[in-house]
Write the structure tokens for this entry.
Amino acid sequence: MLYLSRFTFPDAEWETGFLMGILRKCYDTFYPFKVLSSRGLEEVEFEPITLFYGGNGSGKTTALNVIAEKLSLERRAPFNYTPLFEDYLAFCSYVPTAARRMPVGSAVITSDDVFDFLLDLRAINAGVDRRREALFEEYDRTKETKSVPLRSLEDYDALKRFNEGKRSTKSAYVTRRLPKSLNTASNGESAFAYFSDRIGENALYLLDEPENSLSAKLQEELAKFIEDSARFYGCQFVISTHSPFLLALKGARIYDLDAVPACERRWTELENVRVYRDFFEKHRSAFQK
């Protein structure tokens, strides 16, 4: 499914004309000007899956952020927003395939979103651990206490805990009172679950290096999930990535931002992929033992 057909960025000439007019103003940075134009990236034609490939500083994330802001997509994590961002967006244009608005639920999902989610899980589970220690101490006190006076509702609650402590093992006593950890999976498993929960049906998703925190196996699973979501569930994806597993997505259109000017390439032509190929070719004999 296609929701976004074409996106146009300002070229170097447009940018120069604009920047010459504001040179007298005091700005610490002209970002996002001069990032994508330095790569010659002026227009992007989209497929159900479109990939931006390139090294650090190539503009992959900038392109995603510009597209996301121009389309007013849902965003959770902050990004590198500067005073000139709105001026830059005014030079950009896009062609949707149907209605002018993007489908409900369309969003940009970044590495910061995933990391924030993992940190939240860690904080909640740390709270559960602290509660567990408090319950251990509470159980020990019930064993040391011979009786509980009954003079108020608070005494009644204490009496119930006292009686249960006398009848139960420490494990049973703590388990009944302890909230369960939200997630006992690894960071990679939790990160994968985050994507599978956030990505729904019939929407446009911009993913910024989703392979972060994922093992090779989970990157394969994410690639399959993205392919299925695009093929069967009406989703469109624009992804910035270094991952060979994602770059090999079937039918994906790849823009190489390491090239100047940026151009379309097959995944097997990309430098990052060839580095992996050469590494395993160099160690071929180790796999034959």
Q: What stands out?
A: Residues 111-144 form the longest helix (34 residues). The chain has a mean pLDDT of 82. The longest strand covers residues 4-8.
